[in-house]
Specification:
The protein is an alpha+beta fold.
Length: 296
C-alpha cells in the first residue's frame, strides 16, 4: 500500500499489489461495489492496527461505519477503546490500519461465510468541523445515533465523547463468490453499495420462511423437468434423492443466489433478473417474473 501522492514503482498497477481482477461481466457487481456493499451491510467488521494488542476482539469491533463522498471511511469508536487511544495522537500518514469484513449469510445454511473484505489505509481522529460532518453522515446511516448526547452534528466535543476515526483508503480487497480482487482507492471512492444491501437480510429471511415452494421451482430454469425438479442429481451409480433444503443465499440488484442441498452434497445456482433493479418495487416485479418463468 503506497500513500497517494508518493511515487513508487508499480503504483496503480494491480498485478504488483494482489491477484488480478477476474473479468467483470455486466450481470454482476464490480469488486469495488462489492467492498462498498460489505461496508454498507450488516457484515461484521473489526479494526486491525499493526503492532497493537488484538487479544480482545470485541474491543476492536466496528458497529457504526459510513463512507463519505470523498471515499474516506468514518468509524465511530468507543471512548477509551484501544483504537481511540492509539489514533488520538496519530498524524496524517503515521498510523496504518485495516478494516476486516466478514459476510455471513443471514439464513441457516452450511458454510455460511459468503465472503470477506479488507479496506486498508491511514487512520486519524476526526475533529472540529470534520467530526461534525462525519457525525451527520453516521446519524443518517444509523438514525438511533442522533439521540445520543454528544453525537448530534452540532453537539459539543468532550473528553469522554465517543471519538470518530477517519480511514483514508489506500487500497481494498475482496474474496467472495465472484473471486478475489484488488480494488484501487479511486475505484472504491467512485463505487456505490448495492441498493438492496440494507434490506438483503430481511428479504432473504422472508424468502426462506414464506416462499419455499417457489424457490424449489427455480430448478426448472436449470434444465430440470418438473417431474424430477425436487430431486438431487445422483452420484455415479446412485439414485436421485429429494433436496433437503433450497435456501436463498444472496440477493443483489442483478439477481438471486440459491443453495440446493441434499445430505453432504450441495451446489449454488444464480438466477439473474431480466434487468438490474434499483429499489424494492422493482425487486418485487423481478422476483415475480423469475418465479413465473420457473412455473411456480
Amino acid at each position: 500500500m503506497i500513500r497517494p501522492g508518493s511515487p513508487a514503482p508499480g503504483t496503480g498497477h494491480r498485478d504488483h499489489k494482489g491477484p488480478p481482477c477476474p473479468d467483470e461481466e455486466a450481470g454482476q457487481p464490480t469488486a469495488a461495489e462489492r467492498v462498498r456493499t460489505l461496508l454498507a451491510s450488516n457484515a461484521s467488521a473489526t479494526l486491525a492496527i499493526p503492532g497493537a494488542d488484538q487479544e480482545e476482539p470485541g474491543a476492536w469491533a466496528l458497529d457504526f461505519r459510513v463512507v463519505a463522498p470523498s471515499g474516506d471511511v468514518y468509524l465511530l469508536a468507543v471512548s477509551g477503546s484501544p483504537a481511540a487511544r492509539i489514533a488520538a495522537h496519530a498524524l496524517a500518514d503515521e498510523l496504518t490500519a485495516v478494516i476486516e469484513l466478514t459476510d455471513v449469510a443471514p439464513v441457516a445454511v452450511p458454510h455460511r461465510i459468503r465472503g470477506r473484505g479488507w479496506v486498508a489505509g491511514w487512520l486519524t481522529t476526526a475533529r472540529g468541523a470534520e467530526r461534525a460532518t462525519a457525525i451527520g453522515l453516521l446519524a443518517e446511516r444509523y438514525p438511533a445515533l442522533d439521540a445520543l448526547p454528544g453525537l448530534r452534528p452540532g453537539g459539543a466535543e468532550h473528553e469522554d465523547t465517543d471519538p470518530v476515526l477517519r480511514l483514508e483508503v489506500g487500497e481494498a480487497f475482496t474474496d467472495d463468490f465472484w473471486g478475489a480482487c484488488h480494488v484501487e482507492p479511486d475505484e472504491f471512492a467512485e463505487a456505490a453499495p448495492d441498493p438492496l444491501a440494507r434490506h438483503e437480510a430481511e428479504l432473504l429471511q422472508h424468502l426462506a420462511a414464506a416462499h419455499e415452494t417457489q424457490l424449489r421451482s427455480l430448478c426448472t430454469l436449470l434444465g430440470r423437468g418438473p417431474a424430477d425438479c425436487g430431486m438431487a442429481w445422483p452420484a455415479a451409480g446412485g439414485r436421485a434423492v429429494p433436496w433437503e433444503a433450497v435456501t436463498p443465499l444472496g440477493l443483489d440488484r442483478f439477481g438471486l443466489r440459491v443453495r440446493f442441498r441434499a445430505g453432504e452434497a450441495c451446489f449454488d445456482a444464480r438466477f439473474e433478473f431480466p434487468e438490474p433493479v434499483r429499489d424494492l418495487t422493482q425487486l418485487r416485479r423481478a422476483m415475480r417474473q423469475l418465479f413465473e418463468a420457473a412455473g411456480a
